[in-house]
Each structure stands twice: as C-alpha cells, then as structure tokens.
Amino acid sequence: MTWELSEFGDQLCGGSGIGELMDDLGHALAKGGDQVRMLGGGQPAHIPEMDALWRQRMECVLGEEGALEHALGHYEPPAGNPQFRKAVAGLFRRQFGWDITSEHVGVTAGGQTAFFMLFNSLAGKFRDGRRKKVLLPLVPEYIGYANQAVDGGPPSSDGRKDDLGLFRAVKPRIERMGEHQFKYRVDFDALTVAEDVAAICVSRPTNPTGNVLTDTEIDRLAKLATQHDVPLIIDNAYGAPFPNAIYTDATPVWNDQIILTLSLSKLGLPGTRTGIVIARPEIIRSLESMMSIIGLANTNIGQAMVTPLIESGEILTLSRDVIQPYYRSKSQQAERWVEEFFDPKLPYRIHVSEGAFFLWMWFEGLPITSMELYQRLKQRDVLVVPGNYFFFGLDDDPWRHRDECLRVTFTMPEQAVREGYRVIAEEVAKAYAEKR
C-alpha cells in the first residue's frame, strides 16, 4: 500500500529533471569503468593547484587549536559564521565599492537551497488568493530551478497539474554567428513585467548555455526591476569575481534591488554545500529564519576553509589566475573536438562559449528529439542532458527548438570528453542520415 502524498509531497517527490540527472550520474559512478563518459553534470574539475590548496587549508584547520572542534562540533548562527559573512562583505566593499555590511550577507546549504527558499518566499500563492511568478527573461535556464515550487499552481484547462507554474519565461532572440555558432539574446521587445511578477531571475553565465548576459542587458534588467519594484536575482554560481569561470568581460553588479547568489562549489568545494547570498538585510533575515526552520544551521567546514582566502583577497587571484584559465582552455579544446568530429555539412551550431562548464549544442531540424538522442547516447555509455529540461516556463509552447539541443560538459578527464564528443557526432550524423 502506497501512502498518500500531500500537494507538497506530490510536487517534490515525483521526480524531476535535476533528480534524473543526479540519479543517472550516480548510477554511472556505481556501474564504474572507464567506459562511462559522464558529460552531463556540473561537477567541477579536479584542478591540481586547487586540490593542493584545499588540502593545505584543511591541514591549517586541523593544526589550529580548537578550529576543527569548532567547525565540526558547533552550530553556527543560521545566517552563517559571523567572521565569514564579515569577510565576504569586506571583499566586495574593497573591490567594487558596494555599500554592504555583514548584515547583507547570508549563507545557505548550497546555492540550490538558496533558490528554493527565495523562489517560494517571493512567489507562489498568497494569502489573499493571488499568485505571483518568477520571470525568466531568457530561456534555456538552469534545470535546477524548474521543480522547486512548493505550490505548483492550479491544474491547466485539460486537467493536467501545472507543476511549472512558478515560472514565466521569454523566448530569446537567436543570433546566428558564422557557420556553426549562435548566441541567445534577451528579447526586450517581448519582455513584459506584469503585475503578477514577483521577481526577475537570470544566471550569469547561464547554465546550460555558457551565455554571459552583457553589462547592458543586466543594466536594462536592473532598471526594469527597479521600475516595477521587484528583485532582480542573479545566479552567479560560475561568475565573476569568483569562481570566475567566465571567458568574456562582465562587471559584477549589486544594489539593494538585486539579490546576488554565489557558491563555493565551482571553486572546487561542491561537497561543502556552501551558498552565499548578498541582498537587503531583510532578505537575509528571511533566509536566516527559513534556514533555522529547515535545517537549524549551515555546514561549517567550507566557511572555515575559505574565510582566510576571502579576507586576504587571495580568492580573487586564484579565480583569475588558476580557475579561469583552466576552464577557458577546456572550453577551447572542446570546441576543437567538435570541429574535428562533426560533419561540417550538418546543421549543427554551438552556443558561443562565454563561461561555465558546458557546450550547448543545437541541431537544427534534428529528426529525433533531444530526449531520444540522450537515450541513444546513454546506450553507448555517454551521459549528457537533453535540452528540453531547460525550457520550463513556456507552458505548452510547441517550439521545436527546445527538443533540438544538448548540454554537454567539458570538465571531465580529457580522454572521456574527447571520446564522448566523438560518439555524439556519430549519433547525430546517424539521426540525420535516417531522415534522408
């Protein structure tokens, strides 16, 4: 007998794109063997210099009297370690002149948790019956947002539960570049901030595409947010100034209309589950309250390891001189393999790689769906992420483009990435050949 689930349980326990991705990755690891090319996740690479640094920092924590005992044996305040919060605020004050204190900085158990709390506290169903949404000015957007709504909204006209009702998305303008590249642009002509919009949200660089919204685009979105008195949430998990996995110019920006999130994950510390939120003090207090209810407190070890690097500013040097060049080189190598393996006569395009850990591939007119292509690749031990998962918030728009794309990482070991791209090229060529 199966126990009945509440609406909350039905929404969060019934599976999701991010859940399937993590499950596939976990089973691939369990299956083992070098034959599995795991090109689907956002796992940061093991950069030797960074791994050595984390070992050194852990040894420092171990060697400092009482430090390990404090990190492992104490609850910190729900908003985070006071010294860590002070260090983050000081860094951004010194480097960018932002008018912030530790009261503007909060810590969450990873960036994913921050977005769950932010989305559901700002949008969804209100006591008076109104519903508000999070506006995504550009999709595709991060798969991890899609199923975070506690209240998925009412059934659609055909009786089907609308589990993506928290979001409203806007199709991008597609700018073709050369023979085999393209770039998404925010379509400001189609962008409307209606009365039921609770917040505007973008990732920069965008996960999955590696698209970096320009300073001009961010400025226009910030002005729209101010005009309509809603927050602009910027997901900076891969961005500047840390971890700075970004390969084009982009100015970090914050004002009291912006909620900025960062993370220690892409520095090479995903296991510490340490997210950072910079926002108005009342937003930080709200997160503090939610964190105390949901989890009592945050994990301590990541904050203990990284605080000295933030206080000294070394985190910026490492991001600029170690992390950014490493991933830029990986991105360039991946693009060379695409050029080597893909038939230039096929209508494939790669989103211009401006940041993050992925290439976003578009196969225009693909005779099968990206989900079918994903299944074919999975049979050949190549794991990617089908593009349809990233186009939530468009309701039932039958836009074929959403079924023609793949997200493929380039952070895994070189041989796995090279062989994986070769297999993808073969399966794409087969799919087009079947049509002919």
Short description:
By secondary structure, the chain is α/β, with parallel strands linked by helices. The protein has helices at residues 7-13, 17-31, 48-63, 67-73, 82-96, 111-122, 215-228, 281-295, 301-312, 314-341, 370-379, 414-435, and strands spanning 37-38, 105-108, 124-125, 131-136, 167-169, 173-177, 181-185, 197-203, 232-235, 258-263, 275-278, 348-351, 358-363, 382-383, 385-386, 405-409.
Task: Tell me about this structure.
The chain has twelve helices and 16 strands. The protein has 436 residues and is an alpha/beta fold. The strands form three sheets. Strands 2, 3, 4, 5, 8, 9, 10 and 11 form an eight-stranded mixed sheet that branches. Helix 10 packs parallel to helix 12.
Write out key terms for the chains shown.
single chain; eight-stranded mixed beta sheet; six-stranded mixed beta sheet; 40% helix
